[in-house]
Design goal:
Blueprint: H1 2-9, H2 12-44, E1 56-58, E2 68-70, H3 71-103, E3 114-116, E4 123-125, H4 132-136
Helix pairs in contact: 2-3
């Protein structure tokens, strides 16, 4: 039982995913520091009359953070997500695809082509005539 678990953990895919997650977490901190230290001040500078709260709208008393809608934080979160996902794609996914292609395996490829079942309109494989359900249903006797 433990040998099977050890074999599972030592597979190339599991190790690759684990390394990718560790790198992603470490890079996440770097991107967060970038957005907090560089992007947030730039966004906040676009609307200087909000008592230092940044880009947004004040709903309650002036300077009250609890009633401030912080659009700048939302813009920073979007930038954070785009930078983080682009980096993960270019530093982890593309090299992994290249390595797997050299091994003869296709990962993250295009989905198989499909067509529509003529009876129930569900998606089926391109070489099939009907879906499994429609093919198993017997036609009603007339």
């Amino acid at each position: 039982m433990l040998k099977g678990f050890k074999n599972f953990l030592m597979r190339d895919d599991v190790i690759t995913v684990a390394i990718g997650l560790v790198v992603a977490l470490a890079f996440s901190n770097l991107v967060e520091a970038f957005t907090n230290s560089v992007i947030n001040p730039l966004v906040a500078a676009t609307q200087p009359d909000t008592a230092g709260l940044g880009l947004g709208f004040q709903l309650g008393a002036e300077g009250n953070e609890a009633t401030f809608i912080d659009i700048g934080a939302f813009i920073s979160a979007i930038i954070y997500f785009i930078v983080f996902m682009a980096t993960i794609y270019f530093l982890i996914v593309l090299p992994y695809k290249h390595i797997q292609a050299r091994r003869g395996a296709t990962v993250f490829g295009d989905p198989a082509p499909t067509k529509t079942c003529p009876e129930c309109k569900s998606e089926i494989a391109a070489d099939a005539n009907k879906c499994k359900f429609c093919a198993s249903v017997q036609p009603a006797a007339a």
